[in-house]
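So, read this over?
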Amino acid sequence: MTGSHDIRDGETLAAVDLGSNSFHLVVARYEHGSLRLIDRLRDSVRMALGLRPDGSLDPLRRERALTCLARFGQRLRSIPHGRVRAVATNSVRRLANPQSFLLPAETALGHPIEVVSGREEARLIYLGVAHDLAVTTQRRLVVDIGGGSTEFIIGEGYDALETESLQMGCIASTMRFFGDGKFTPKRWRQAQTEIAMELQQFAADYKARGWGDAVGSSGTAKAIGAISQANGWSEQGITAASLARLRDAILAAGSIENLRLAGLAEDRTQVIAGGVAIMEAIFETFSLQQMATCEAAMREGILYDMVGRAMHGDPRAGSIAALASRYGVDRAQATRVHHVAIALFDQVEDAWQLGSLDRDLLGWAADIHEIGLAISHSLHHIHGAYIVANSDLDGFSRQGQQLLAAVLRSHRRKPDRESLDALPERLRRPARKLTALLRLAALLERPRTTEPMPSIRVTAEDKVLRLDLPEDWLAQHPLTRADIEQERDFFKILDLKLQVRAIDQVAA
């Protein structure tokens, strides 16, 4: 997860996309308010092929993935950490133990890897596509058939209005319907029936929204378009007629080993049938006659999202504001806790080696620390954590939501060590420290009044937080004083030591 400092003209940014079919690296230079791509790397890792039914990953496929990431890591060595963002999608989402892959993967790459939800993947895809195509006032339907999942987005301008992600992709569907490499009309009809059933979950809602143009992004759509043009079946993009001719050609070949088509790249031959089956069902379900194809996809979307976070507004802030509104948060109280939490943070940021993203996360946690009150008062920290962990929040990775949920879960009563320890190792230390700061802020603002806070001074060492409060103020607030005394024991659960001093303000 990157910081939010402004991006300067001439800076280099990079995005890594760990897709289920291919891994991509794109490098761009930020110039005069826009991005200019200067390098691309791609490897057909086909991680989805290595997924086992028990959620483990085939050792050979794992090794191929790590080797690819090591190559990418070499290219990224000269780029600052805050200007690199790596995102993993469906295949990593489906691992039974993602950390067993992510730890060596992050070591090979040299950068943290975020795992995003299907809907967040869809938002990033749309962002990349929208910046690549001509500006229009019409809504667009964007379809991205990946290796393990397919994303559907209706967007307008640069905003994704509807996002859906289904567990079907060119690799997964080829393995599911044509696992032995044989193509028959019966199997094709079965594929069409089952894929169409999946699409019916949201097809009516999408049709009600409506769109002008349909666009296909990523490798499968581009491959289908390339075959259609190379064989003279379509002048540009994909048409319903060219798709039918491609289907007939696949069935005529009868098997993967006999499949030879102009425009079909060798590395696509093994997985094209599943992708075409999905695309044909999409055309039929959504009554499409034509679809343009687009070079841009999620990797470009990641770059533009980085620019947007730094220069125009972080989508995560919008997600937090939407949660606060949806669950009727007491804005005045949230603002009071936010201000105190950030005031504490700013005094210990350097000593605790925290960064700008940590500051943002603490502020967001303060803004929604009471969302669970919409369900129940007694366990509202637990309800709030559940809401955060299980909501679709634009801009957040799974790890980011997990961290935010863990902080909320532990911001009152006894901290939940289990949820904090379940975080990826690189997030545990900052999570414990953000939890400590939020606990103190909520404790100090427990009276829920407009009474101004006294002068609060905090200093810190690695595992120690020293809190200085005016002696006369503590004498006037016995409940707060008692809470602070109890807090010492709770801090021990966070592997921290709280030291409190009552200061004579006159003497100070």
